[in-house]
Amino acid sequence: MGKINAAKDRHGIGNHAVDHSFIAVVDEEPGFVNLGGNYDYLSRAYYISQDYENDGKPIKPTCKEMLDAYVPPLFLEKAKKAGLPVPEYYLSNSYFDPPVIVDPVNPFTLKGRTVLKAGHVKTIAKSLTRNFTYAVCCQQIPPGGRVVYFNSILGWAIQAKYREASRRIWECFSIPLARVRLIWTESGEYLFSDISPLFPEDLRERERHHIEENVSWEN
What we know:
By secondary structure, this protein is an alpha+beta fold. It contains 6 helices and 11 strands. The strands form 3 sheets. Strands 3-2-1-11 form a 4-stranded mixed β-sheet. The chain has a 4-stranded antiparallel β-sheet with strand order 4-7-5-6, with helices on both faces. Helix 2 (63-70) packs across helix 3 (72-81). The longest helix is centred in the first third of the chain and has 11 residues, at 44-54.
């Protein structure tokens, strides 16, 4: 199903200066869209967007938008200012109070933890803060809340119940492919919690089909 099915390097920068094979034009959207999927700082997709910005070509996401989406406290603050519901959160380099989602802020630790009980707080805090050196972003899980994930594809999701959330993520953060984390509350509302990479090779068939139906490729 076109370029989105091509195997891509998950981690290396590779030949980023010339490899623009993830760039597309979305129907009824101005400019170009970077469908790299992994928008981490200094990733291949990051450099490709940087190339387009340097050439004066409009591109989604921009490098700034990538950082806003992938740094947990920036994500939460930007979402809150845009009117998206988010959980209560705070920064700490030591203690946190379960039940809580703990995301590292430093660039050396990638994965966070969901901590439901107090028994291992000190051990987990020591690990995620690198011996209480770096901050972590702590999101409180409200009583009865549960953590859920879905794939966001250009503001669309396979599951109908997540499509409004996907649309709002796309409008606020301009991230074309995202693994979105929500906290689903006991009252049936959702809180926006996190965005992480969604690699093109991990897309489902319906998600790839949705992309191919709605974009045209630059190259």
